[in-house]
Amino acid sequence: MAPSLPRPHRVDVQISVGSTLAGLAFWGLGLHMQTDRLLGAAWALIPLFVLAGLELLRRSRPQTALVIGTLALVADQFTAGNLVSVMMFTDIMYAAVVYGTPSAARRIPVTTGMITVAVTIGFLAWFRDPEAILVGVVTGLVSFAPATTGVLVRTHREAAGAARLRAEQTALLAEMDRVQAITAERARMARELHDMVANHLSAIAIHSTAALSLDDPKTTRDALAVIRENSVEGLAEMRRLIGILRDSSDDREPTASPTLDGLTALVGNARTNGLDVTLDDTRTPDDSKLPAPVELAAYRIIQESLTNALKHASPGPVTVTLTQRRLALEVGVTSPYGSPSGPRAPGSGAGLVGMRERVELLGGAFESGPESNASPRGGGSDGKVWVVRATLPVDPLDLDPSDEGVTE
């Protein structure tokens, strides 16, 4: 079964009907282009109707319409002719370039140009009269001129389409960047909120459980003191974070982020909460000043590790180590691995995820998990320790070139 022709475009129907009426009006008024032809004036209606029918195919079958239209125009030269037939042919030539295939759009202008030159030279050689050039001019106006006009229009449309596509792609990329920025900001806020508050809430949960389970006034007072201290500090941290989120002005004062200078206070707070923590900081005053993102990541990793030790570790020593090299800061936290003997706060696993994300954002390496105990201070109930290790790289451009004495 042969495929049916597509429905003609509304504009093409209007062109076809209007051209037919105009051609009939010219024919009825006796306005012919030629005289003394082999065929009479009535024969001019055949090419007129054929070309009017081909106007319906100018978009859907442009190359077919051009081939048949060319034959119809040649046949029209043996009749009295009709100006409207010639005009319809120029429109079909134009449409063949605009709506045809890319190869046809390249080939048709070249072909019509060569035909125009050949007709001009041929009629000059035949008539041997300069007026024969007018034949070439007419041929160019009928074929080459509409073809080149079609090339210009098609080129403009393709350029506009390419620009529109680039604009759509740019908008899509902008939307993707916006979504990624929002996702990254939410993840950053989640890490900050977890790291700032989880430590205090874990201590509150553990000590409140101890106060409720032990019938000892001194223990209860000590637990309530720790609960109050962690509540006040946690509330201050929450207010600071809420203030950052609410203040969206660009000229606000920058908020101070935790640095490694605050490790002593962090470890002291962990001891207050009941951990046996030792800080082994091998850095010296001669070491280079670390970039703020590295110090913040190291501080948060140690803070979260101490929180996890408070919630999950069995009784025993917890060791925090810091080793600074020229191009990296190595952080390690070791705690007893096993079931805790006292009250335990539930965990969600978000802490390890947050630590890994912080390290990966800086391009470093992170590992955590149980290992066999190799320390003389002892490990958990099963002889193992939980180890967190992070290597945070430092960009050489962020270091002071005058710094000396830092190991490679």
List keywords for this structure.
disordered C terminus, alpha+beta, 5 strands, 408 residues, Heat Shock Protein 90, 2 domains, single chain
Helix/strand class: alpha+beta
Domain count: 2
Q: Describe the main β-sheet briefly.
A: 5 strands, mixed
- Give helix % range: 55-70%
- Order of H and E elements: HHHHHHHHEHEEHEE
Number of helices: 10
How would you sum up the global shape?
A: rod-shaped
Low-confidence stretches: 404-408
Structure description:
The chain has ten helices and five strands, in the order H-H-H-H-H-H-H-H-E-H-E-E-H-E-E. The chain is of the alpha+beta class and 408 residues long. Helix 3 (62-76) packs antiparallel against helix 4 and helix 9 runs antiparallel to helix 10. It has two domains: 10-170, no CATH class; 260-408, 2-Layer Sandwich (Heat Shock Protein 90). The protein has helices at 10-28, 45-54, 62-76, 83-99, 102-127, 133-213, 217-246, 263-272, 292-312, 350-361; strands at 276-281, 317-324, 328-337, 365-372, 384-393. The protein has a five-stranded mixed sheet, covered by helices on one side. The longest helix has 81 residues, at 133-213. Helix 9 (292-312) links the parallel strand 1 (276-281) and strand 2 (317-324).
